[in-house]
Amino acid sequence: MPTEPHGPRSRRERPAKPALTRPGIIATAVRLMRAEGLERVTMRRLAAELDTGPASLYVYLRNTAELHAAVLDEMLAAVDRTPVDASGDWQNRLVRVLTSYTMVLYDNPGLAQSALVARPSGPGYLNLLEAILALLSEGGVPDDRAAWLCDVLLLFATANAAEHATRDRDTEERDTDALVAAIRNASAETHPRIATLGDDLLSGPGSDRLDWGFHLLINGAGHTPRPAGKNP
Questions:
Q1: Alpha-carbon span 70 to 120, nearest angstrom
Q2: ∠ CA 130-133-137 to the nearest 5 degrees?
Q3: Which partner from 35, 43, 46, 109 sits 20 to 30 angstroms from 216, CA to CA?
Q4: Prediction pTM value
Q5: Can you tell me whether residue 212 is helix, strand or coil?
Q6: Lowest mean pLDDT segment, chosen from 43-52, 65-74, 137-146, 162-171
Q7: Among 28, 118, 129, 107, which Cα is nearest to 72's?
Q8: What is the pLDDT of residue 137?
Q9: SS3 of residue 194 by DSSP
Q10: C-alpha separations of 199 from 192, 193, 204 in Å
Q11: What share of the chain is helix, strand, coil (3-state, %, to 5)?
Q12: CA neighbor of 79 nearest in space, from 111, 48, 53
């Protein structure tokens, strides 16, 4: 029987690679993030996954920071925006949207830390922003305060998620135990307010604190006008 010739195959015999597109690149980056974590999603690693050179990716994305912002924007599609058109108290519905955003970051720890500095500008972010503004408008929050409040609410949610994303469970438990011990052993002579409020400082599950923080910020905006001055 005839045998196959040995040696490398000609490039012309290999199947053609699919053409690179920005949506295809981002979809591959999301898949990599879910499999290996966001810290592994670099331009070099992504290029290897796509069987191309890093230089080819820079046609579509300027750098890793823009790549991570694009991945974040893609993940924001998972935020539940149905409360916008639901019935019930507008503020509670807004908190549900913000909590859903926080949970998306909780479920993707590397993404939470990146979101502190990433600047997404795609449809995922715009849809989230529109949902927040719509509910603030429904609640009668003045437009100028609503515009600034969006940043504060998303920063609070992002920081809350990132705080837990940067530590493993064992480290977090050790740090928490150390903090609890320090507060409960605080001297009434040197730290009287801590000694008096120790139990309250440590009280409440994280979900209640997150919910309370959102309501605090929303209510505060209603009583805090923006500083006077020209817009930049």
A1: 6
A2: 135
A3: 109
A4: 0.82
A5: helix
A6: 162-171
A7: 118
A8: 97
A9: helix
A10: 13, 11, 10
A11: 70, 0, 30
A12: 111
Q: What is the pLDDT of residues 154-177, one digit of tens each?
A: 999 999 998 876 666 667 678 788
- Give the largest Cα separation in the chain, rounded: 95
**AA letter at 2:** P
Q: Select from 76, 85, 78, 66 the least CA-distant residue to 25.
A: 66
- For residue 201, count CB atoms less than 10 angstroms from its CB and return exposed for 0-12, middle for 13-18, buried for 19 or more: middle
CA distance 82 to 24: 28
Question: How far is the C-alpha of 126 from the C-alpha of 140, rounded, in Å?
Answer: 21
Give the residue carrying structure tokens 């605090």. 216
Is residue 125 a contact partner of residue 146, using CB atoms and an 8 Å limit?
no
Q: What angle do CA 221, 83, 34 make, to 5 degrees?
A: 100
Average pLDDT, the chain: 87
